[in-house]
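Before anything else, study the sequence and fold tokens given here and see whether the fold suits the sequence. Record follows:
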Amino acid sequence: MIGLLMLAASSWAQCPERLPDEYADDARSSGRVFLVVKDERFVGVYENDTLLPGACFTVQLGPAADDGPKAKKGDMRTPEGWYAVSHRNPDSQFYRSLAINYPNFDDVMYGIEHGVIDHATGNELAAAINAGRLPNQSTALGGDLFIHGNPNGWMNDWTWGCVAVQNRDMDVLYQLGDPGTPVLILPTLGENESADQ
């Protein structure tokens, strides 16, 4: 029975055929983009703003993913905003993985403004981001966020803030997710953007 549920999981995802207009106009979307929409629980891969055939998959997130963007270590939330694949791991404990370069500048500013990190830590993180390096993953903001496989076939939101897909779907994402590939994580699609497009 579990095998049948896993087989059907990918068919539940309904990605829009095109990136939402407000993001399609962004310079970061000029090539390949991974779009994760948290409330719809999908990841789609877009090339020049158009969904690649067969590249829309159901995801599992953290149990607090719908409570807003990631704000601190251990909050079980998935971040929101523009990120990028920092590196690939073919031997992840969760099958295969694509690391996401969390935190970004917005996360750092939020952390400083809300007392999650101090200015010195914020400056260190910002310097790494400016230099194109993976920021320190051990601050109070948290880190070690990935798009990764799901080796045990879990169907409910179970991650610590990562984006999990079935292993066969991860094979596709892993091939398409070169380091530097933009990853856009949204809480929801806008009112005028629906998966029915």
About this structure: Residues 1-11, 192-197 have pLDDT under 50 and may be disordered. The two ends are 32 Å apart (CA to CA). Residues 4 and 164 are 18 Å apart (CA to CA). The helical segments are 2-12, 21-24, 105-113, 119-130, 167-176.
